[in-house]
Design brief:
It is a single chain. By secondary structure, this protein is α+β, with helices and mostly antiparallel strands. It has a 5-stranded antiparallel beta sheet, with helices on both faces. A 5-stranded antiparallel beta sheet has the order 7-6-10-9-8. It has a 5-stranded mixed beta sheet with strand order 12-14-15-17-16. Helix 10 (250-315) runs antiparallel to helix 11. Helices cover 43% and strands 24% of the residues. It folds into 4 domains: 4-124, PAS domain (Beta-Lactamase, 2-Layer Sandwich), CATH 3.30.450.20; 133-248, Beta-Lactamase (2-Layer Sandwich); 254-357, Helix Hairpins, CATH 1.10.287; 359-527, Heat Shock Protein 90 (2-Layer Sandwich). A hairpin with a 5-residue loop joins strand 8 (209-217) and strand 9.
Length: 527
């Protein structure tokens, strides 16, 4: 065993050669942490020639979190208060890569036995792992985990010192970018997650364990749901760190959302059927008195006309009487016209309720479907009075087979989104067109609303994602949302091979385009 101090004091050619070819780092520093000499291994680690390292501060090679501890160790050694032991710390090379090493330190004395510097030996630090049944079992489990499972290890300060490839792949970081950082640096920090993160560290501190759902923040900004289980690592009765094993929940969340969306659709279909039956009953009950009102108005109008003729025959022409009778006749005519409008609305309501309840594919003119939905939307006063509308709807388009409700709900969901988007816009203009082009029916819905920000364009079709206020948080009559509108459009039109796209510019508005193939939807398959 070569004594470091003795080796340094000899410092002949043989000793120098040994130091230069050694796999450990050898560095001589003065009492001010300045490098006096070093071996070639250390030069390579710092990617500098020995001449450039002379006079440099050794602290440049010490990891930030270990700098103060290292300085205290050296200062204690200078004061002869240092007890020799194996010291573990981290070095950082010229690329800021981290190497865990063990440090041995020997003082350099002059002829008067005064300490003039320190001779440092940094050796690669390796945890000894015995080839036991336990370690074999652990490695087997570790290697069998799929890419769905993430693993990280930390020191007792919860700073990451180990990660598996699955975690780096999911988050998009390199290992060197994660090692040495606190676990919390990679957790989503927003109001919804803040309490969960506090609970995580509080539970881990008090019980040494945690199990629950958290969200990792990927490098590109994505929020990744992870079911995370953490346990403290205990060695010789002391906590030396923690081990976290997580499972990627994205696929499960997607399936849950799809199932929930489907359940909502079934629930909505049931409500529509119930509402439709009630609506038909109300409409039927209203038809009888309306028919009576219409008949009475027509009868009174006819009677007044005959009465007017008799007055002229008996008393001659009287301009004042004539004008009064004519005014009264106008009122009865107005009643007749108004009743006819109400009857038409009731007819449309009954037709719509029957169509919405239908679970059998039927021949549809999508232009008629759109026109009917737009007619019902006129009940929305904001749409009716505040928005300038321009409709270009081709009536003679090919018939396609499908469920009325699939298309009516899809059209109205996008139109309502466009209406909501213009709530606070200075210019409120909507353009809707339907045309037959080649073998497709193309539907365009354009607004001059607030537009869709680039950062969320890839999320607008996600289930339950919305930029609108929740109902409980809405101010006044501002639009609210649940986040299932566009998701349901995608789900409802998928069986028809429809393609949905959009173009949007913040502050200028959004244009949605739905392209529905004709040929493949012209057979009444009832699937």
């Amino acid at each position: 065993m070569i004594d470091l101090k003795e080796l340094y004091l000899r410092k002949g050619s043989v000793a120098q050669d040994y130091i230069d070819i050694a796999q450990d780092f050898f560095v001589e520093i003065n009492n001010y942490f300045k490098i006096i000499d070093c071996n070639l291994k250390f030069c390579k680690f710092m990617n500098k020639p020995r001449s450039d390292l002379f006079g440099a501060n050794i602290l440049e090679a010490i990891h930030e979190r270990d700098k103060i501890r290292f300085q205290n160790i050296v200062r204690n050694a200078l004061l002869r208060k240092f007890k020799e032991s194996l010291i573990r710390l981290d070095l950082t090379d010229y690329k800021q890569r981290i190497s865990t090493v063990s440090l041995k330190i020997n003082p350099i004395l002059d002829d008067s036995n005064n300490i003039t510097g320190m001779f440092l030996k940094f050796s690669t630090y390796k945890l000894r792992m015995e080839d036991s049944e336990f370690s074999t079992l652990f490695m087997s489990i570790y290697n069998s985990l799929t890419d769905l499972y993430t693993i990280y290890g930390t020191d007792k300060k919860i700073q990451i010192n180990h990660i598996n490839t699955s975690l780096t792949n999911i988050l998009g970081y390199k290992k060197v970018e994660m090692i040495g950082r606190h676990v919390a640096d990679f957790l989503v920090k927003n109001k919804e997650q803040e309490e969960n993160i506090k609970k995580l560290f509080k539970t881990l501190e008090s019980t040494g364990k945690f199990s629950g759902e958290v969200y990792y923040q990927a490098k590109n900004g994505d929020e990744i749901p992870i079911h995370l289980s953490i346990s403290s690592l205990i060695h010789n009765g002391k906590v030396i760190g923690s081990l976290g094993i997580g499972r990627d929940m994205r696929e499960q969340k997607k399936l849950e959302s799809e199932n929930k969306s489907f359940a909502l659709q079934v629930q909505n279909q049931s409500k529509l059927a119930e509402f439709g039956m009630m609506l038909q009953g109300v409409a039927h009950n209203m038809s009888t008195p309306l028919t009576g009102i219409k008949s009475s108005a027509q009868l009174q109008h006819s009677r007044l006309l005959k009465f007017k003729e008799k007055l002229v025959e008996k008393y001659g022409e009287d301009q004042e009487v004539k004008e009064n009778i004519t005014d009264i006749m106008k009122f009865f005519k107005l009643i007749d016209i108004s009743v006819s409008k109400i009857a038409k609305i009731i007819k449309n309501l009954m037709s719509k309720s029957r169509d919405q309840q239908s679970i059998t594919k039927e021949a549809l003119n999508l232009s008629f479907v759109m026109e009917q939905e737009l007619e019902f939307l006129t009940a929305n006063q904001f749409f009716q009075n505040k928005i300038e509308k321009n409709f270009d709807i081709q009536s003679d388009i090919p018939i396609v087979y499908g469920l009325y409700s699939d298309f009516s709900q899809s059209f109205v969901n996008i139109v309502k989104n466009s209406i909501d988007a213009m709530w606070a816009s200075p210019v409120k203009r909507m353009y809707i067109s339907i045309h037959h082009e080649e073998d497709s029916i193309k539907v365009k819905i354009k607004d001059t609303g607030n537009g869709i920000h680039e950062s969320i364009k890839n999320r607008i079709f996600e289930p339950f994602f919305t930029t609108k206020s929740k109902f409980k948080d809405a101010k006044g009559e501002e639009p609210t949302g649940t986040g299932i509108g566009l998701d349901s459009v995608k789900t409802l039109l998928k069986p028809y091979g429809a393609k949905i796209s959009f173009e949007s510019e913040v502050g200028s508005g959004t244009e949605f385009t739905i392209v529905i193939p004709v040929s493949e939807n012209q057979q009444n398959s009832n699937n």
